[in-house]
Amino acid sequence: MKMKTILLGAAAAVALSACAARAERGADGHLNIIYWQAASILNPFLSGGTKDTEAASMVIEPLARYDEKGNMVPYLVDEIPTVANGGISEDLTTITWKLSPGILWSDGTPFTSADVVFTAEYCMHPEGGCQQETKFSGVTNVEALDDLTVKITFDSPKPFPYGPFVGVESPIIQAAQFANCIGADAPNCTAENFGPFGTGPFRVTEFKANDVVSYEANPNYRDPAKPAFATVTFKGGGDAASAARAVLETGEFDYAWNLQIDPTILTQMAAGGKGEVVSSFGTSVERLMVNLSNPSADLGDKRSTLEGGPHPFLTDPIVRTALSTAIDRNLLAEVGYGAAGKPTCNVLPAPAIYASTANDACLVQDIAAANAMLDGAGWARGSDGIRAKDGVRLSILYQTSTNAVRQDTQALVKQWWGEIGVETELKNIDAAVFFGGDQSSPDTYQKLFADIEMYTNNFAGTDPEAYMNSWTCGDIPTPANNWLGSNMPRYCNPEYDALAAQMGQTSALDDRAALAKAMNDLLMQEGAMIPLIHRGDVSAHSNTLQGVLMNSRDSELWNIADWSR
Fold first, then answer.
1. Which of 258, 227, 264, 228 is closest to 244 using CA atoms?
2. pLDDT (tens digit, 9 = 90+) per residue, 104-149?
3. Burial class (CB in 10 A: 0-12, 13-18, 19+), 31
4. Which residues lie below 8 Å from residue 545, measured CB to CB, with a gap of 6+?
5. 395-401 and 423-429 as β-strands: parallel, antiparallel, unpaired?
6. Which terminus in the chain has less CB density within 10 A, N or C?
7. Which domains occur in the chain, in start order?
8. CA distance 221 to 104
9. H or E segment and range at residue 336
């Protein structure tokens, strides 16, 4: 490459000199981040909570991730494998990743293909109960061809082979550190799960579960000029409103995540001029997960498992349809989300090619129709107005995390369900506990010791294959897999599993879209879940913070190495 001589004016020279002075690791001091849902663990393989995976993303990284536009970008490799560059075999059964040379773990040891192989063994272990197991769907072998080359083999042609090791939920963990944490021992490795070594821009200095994480710049990070911040505090606790206030009004924090609060109040806070509200739409859907198994405590270890038997009334499709029909999604969006929410009838609302229109009837609330359905199915009102049949009352325990918008949603839904003769008890659980994955707690969203629960979920990137695999029979949380998995409704349908398998072998985009829509429609029309709102992600950052690129396709902290003051 030829060098060009560039003559700078005095002002430009001064600016360049200032930039050079700033381009020094840790030069911008301390960064304060508040995720009001506190981190409970820093191992994404043992927790599906967004606050946990994002707190971990500052430390441990995947081979590639998604940028703010949904493009796949290399992180621990120099290029993304494709058929064209020889990284994916012509028959689509293998993908070979070539690691970037010279990358070190935060303890100073080399990052090699052995770490990638170990991570696959860790998540795919039959006794491990890995939360991200669907990312490894169809994988039969992961092998190190040399220190910097990893080959993944699938059991059949894999048109989209970027499930393993791509995106925030599928990072690499160090083989040496986690060597004794395989299988059933995985949850017992407290030191490792709270303080993993990583290749990312920061390393953990202190971890207080469900409270605060302290980080410092990783001295072995691959870019000697990054990160700009020497230390970071990742604070949890409080609520969305106090988190927004801490950035937009008091300036105590630099970044606040997931500001699920009244949009009018958020606008008023932003008027203070200390910070900026940022948002983007991805695939996040606030939904009701319907427990198709029996959550009765009388069942002991079989509680909320298929072995414990079906739910006493939520397995009636008429009941599930009536519950959905009674909800005014437009009002929920208007009251709780404003411009950051749209009513939806799908769990897969985006990208547009995957969005079904087959379920749009739910967009219109119809209390009379819901009542008529229940009347026709023999659910008769008692003297207290609550419907029952064969001695079974329509009485629902409806749980979610503690959050003002969610409690407002609960109150409205309870009111509407009351109008159709359904009794509803509301329960809200601290978000750090609800999303924390602590197997000793009865209140995690994976256990679902309730009739219905509400939360938001999404997927990284733009391809929904791994996400839609979340509702296959094999991804149901059970005691045997340490209550890890994403199929909270305990939905098990061979027809659905067959569609998922077919999608894993289909390459044409239009055909993949048709399969994804069919899977979405099965879930919707069989009432395994009740979608409410297609949510935009809303956060805020200080006016002094530069480099933030709001990302709904990966971690919001995906480019924290590029943030500066």
1. 258
2. 999 999 999 999 999 999 999 998 889 899 899 999 999 999 999 9
3. buried
4. 31, 254, 255, 563, 564, 565
5. parallel
6. N
7. 282-459+528-536 (3.10.105.10)
8. 7
9. helix 329-336
